[in-house]
Amino acid sequence: LPRPEVAKADMDSTKEEEALLQSVRKAGAAVPRKRAVGRLVMHSMVMFGREFCYAVEAAFVTPVLLSVGLPKNLYSLVWLISPILGFMLQPVVGSASDHCTCSWGRRRPYILGLGITMLLGMALYLNGDMMISAFIAERQRQQTWAIIITMLGVVLFDFAADFIDGPIKAYLFDVCCHEDKEKGLHYHALLTGLGGALGYLTGAVDWGQIMLGYSLTSEFQVIFFFAALVFLICLAVHLRSIPEVPLRYENEESKFLLEVTESYKYNSIEGEIKNGYLKSTCTEIKAEAEPGKCAVVSHTENQRRMTLKSLSKTLLNMPPHYRCLCVSHLFGWMAFLSNMLFFTDFMGQVVYHGSPYAPRNSTLYLSYRKGVEMGCWGLCINAISSSAYSYIQKILLPHLGLKGLYFIGYLLFGLGTGLIGLFPYVYSTLALCSLFGIMSSTLYTVPFHLIAEYHREEESLKLQDGEQAGQHGRGKGIDCAALTSMVQLAQIILGVCLGLLVSVAGSTVTVISASAVALIGCCFVAFCVHYVE
To answer: So where does this one cross the membrane (predicted)?
Structure first.
């Protein structure tokens, strides 16, 4: 273009930007500033610790439950209690965190509480048998209480570990701009894979032959020591990573959104505007206000009084594309969990032809233990693959788009688990474990990436229409909670159906079921999920 036209185009672009900023000021939306990479990595550390503990549970929960003598008919009950509680309470807590007025922030109080619950649950299910034997001498009562305490520990851990993902994602979305949200999700997936790899390696080590194993009573105590230490460090780093924007009610009629400065002090709104950050009060003017007076009412003040009935209405009235995304996420987690929860047991019973019910030190039991250890190595390969694929995703995203990444993740997982079920050999199974990591990375990134895209699209449409950004809007917390609650729903479905199938047909049915559900999910992802252009 000729220079005068270029100058005119630049001027028009500047005017458009100024108009957009002015509309943002009027709409009451705060634009988070760009975050340093180090801060995003610190924020993602909690995923490292969470997945480390998850890996320990995935590797040992089945052997632990079977070793304390849990009857087969109660096995499904363990997987049902926690997801039922989580499925009912997840959206409630997501909505509550959207309107939490704690001075520490909206999400971090929930993350801290759930982190402590995770540690308590892990302590109970890894050390329950030893704790009970210290207080009860009678063998029969000892076994009964060991089963109860171990089941309670598994339920608490699963409940908190599944629950904590929603507030973590909402925390990321609250404090980051759109570009940093994408980076943050990739760092989450990367550190999730690394944490899982380290957790599975911890399970694969024979701690009985190491000095620390001699110092403590059992290998489960050693594993708990490492898992608790790693998780506490990661949780502390996460909570200190990025200061949250607290919701503060100055009076009953108005609420102000305050941003943290570099020195982590809360300044006045006027001061922040001078520093270049967009701030505004979320207000609307009453039509019936007296002339010359401006009656200000906080829209979020009304939302704060949301009851359980109105929350249910909000969930039922989700836009169709949100519901389709939740259904596709449900298919993915049903497939993934049906394979992962029973994988070490599958390796012990099907691949190594052992039995967890055989007498200790018998050939069958030792073969089963060998299979469990090899299963830990397979899950470690899965975690490393997940971490590597989360990096490759950033390269593939411009070429394949979110739809391509979503479809490939489900397809490769479905084909991989199907081949494992048909050919249950050691080395082929270990090689195909790398495809599990592709599915894991996909589930932890793409659906939440789509949620961020949906919110961005909605905010853009509202600003174009001159509406308030927060008016009748959906909170990020409740949308992340609705998506995360699909994990609990998947566990409920698997707890009802899969336990019976395993008792009848054996562990092979788990990988075949995972393959079938993943391939069905492929079709759903391709034809039903909405992708923002």
So the answer is: 52-70, 76-97, 109-126, 146-164, 185-202, 222-239, 330-352, 404-423, 429-452, 480-505, 511-532
Residue with tokens 């050999």: 425
Q: Read off the pTM.
A: 0.67
Of the listed ranges 21-35, 397-411, 449-463, 482-496, the least confidently predicted one is 21-35
Give the Cα separation of 88 and 229 in Å (integer): 31
Q: How many helices (H) and strands (E) does the chain have?
A: 18, 4
* Residue predicted with more confidence, 172 or 495: 172
Domains and CATH numbers, the chain: 36-246 (1.20.1250.20), 308-466+474-532 (1.20.1250.20)
Tell me the C-alpha distance between 128 and 147, whole Å. 8
In terms of C-beta density within 10 A (0-12 exposed, 13-18 middle, 19 or more buried), how is residue 71 classed?
A: exposed
Longest dimension (CA), the chain: 93
CA distances from 316 to 91, 156, 299, 320 (A): 12, 28, 21, 10
Q: To the nearest whole number, what is the mean pLDDT of the chain?
A: 75
Residue 445 CA to residue 449 CA, distance in Å, equals 6
> Which two three-digit tokens encode residue 222?
């050693």
